Amino acid sequence: MLARVATDSSAAASSYDFYVTVDTSHCLFTGQPMYFASIHGNSNHWAVWTTADTEDPNGTPDTINKKSLRIWLRTNYATNLNEIAAVHWEIKWCGVGTVDVPAPSYALCCGKSSSSNWNNYGENGVTSVSFKGCGFTGTDGPYVFTSLSDTSGGISARVSGVNSIYGASNDGFTVYLMMLPGYSAIGAGGYNQRNFQLNWCAFQPRANEGSAGYPCTAPRLLAGAGGQNVQSDDGNMCCDKTKYSGWQDSGDGKTIYRNIDVSRCGFSVVTTVLVDLRGDWSTADKAGGTAAFSWVDSKTIRYTVWTNGQYRYYDAVKYHWRAQWCLMGQ
């Protein structure tokens, strides 16, 4: 499941705004799926802050298309399609939904990074995540999808780069973070102090070996913050989307938030949370920080979205903004 950014003029709206429309019809979804995406490349894609925003290319309100997906790539620096092609930006995506045919076989492995392993990159931050415990062996690097958590009430929504993957291999990947417009840099020290933690899942195509558990019928869950010990080869996945009501004002003029009740999953241990945003055409795709969350308690996560004041909590209701989420655990 891979789509390259197009290199024709139709993929550019300005020197800061680009989009890719992905044909997902081969998945044969029978209803509205949930899509998760990340951007991979060689350079500069950490400046993209809208990879976790999904919309229907047809513009139908409150709908995610079962046959296609549009993702906008909005950056904080000017570039063009030739430069994007030169540094090999690629959108990698995953669709979660119901089908009437056998689904492709993937080895799925999930975990969390250490919350104290951020290093300075100028005034920003970088961390490298190992997933050697997944035991990937394919010739192509896995597809990696990420969210970012914190213990400071949603401050992780103030950064870009969460879904920008560098150097994905069978052993791990690297992520660089920078603050979104309007916020001062807090550096690696600030990330570590606030316990910024990458939640990740990695997929790799693999032949179905006919056995129960990982890698055929269940995800592998790695234990610990950055540790490589296997917690379980029989993990479970629980996914849903919120109503579009329930958004609230964060009080800072730049972000809105909503709480998400995840208790229905019934997990005693949650290894990984993936979260992103869906909404109506030309609205939700302008939000940043949309793959960030913080835990309120063991049953509730707080989902914060950066709009830079362009959209308020009542606009999120008007334009059908919903959080999509998946928990991996037991």
Shape: globular
**How many strand units?**
23
Distance between the termini: 27 Å
The main pleated sheet reads as:
9 strands, mixed
Going by helix content, strand content and strand pairing, the class is mainly beta
Placed side by side, the strands forming the largest sheet appear as 16-15-7-14-10-21-22-19-18
Order of helices and strands: EEEEEHEEEEEEEEHEEEEEEEEEHE
Rounded to the nearest angstrom, the radius of gyration is 18 Å
- Give the averaged pLDDT, no decimals: 91
Poorly predicted spans: 1-10
Q: What share of residues are in beta strands?
A: 35-45%
Give an overview in words.
This protein is mainly beta and 330 residues long. The strands form 5 sheets. It has a 9-stranded mixed sheet with strand order 16-15-7-14-10-21-22-19-18, with no helix packed on it. The chain starts with a strand and ends with a strand. The relative contact order is 0.19.
Summarize the structure.
The chain is mostly beta strands and 330 residues long. The chain is built from 3 helices and 23 strands.
Architecture blueprint of SSEs:
Layout: E1 2-4, E2 17-23, E3 34-41, E4 53-54, E5 68-74, H1 81-86, E6 90-96, E7 106-112, E8 119-121, E9 124-130, E10 143-150, E11 159-160, E12 164-166, E13 172-179, H2 187-193, E14 197-205, E15 220-225, E16 230-232, E17 236-241, E18 248-249, E19 255-261, E20 270-278, E21 292-297, E22 300-306, H3 313-318, E23 322-329
Parallel strand pairs: 3-12, 4-20, 7-15, 10-21
Antiparallel strand pairs: 1-6, 2-5, 3-6, 7-14, 8-9, 9-13, 10-14, 11-13, 15-16, 17-23, 18-19, 19-22, 20-23, 21-22
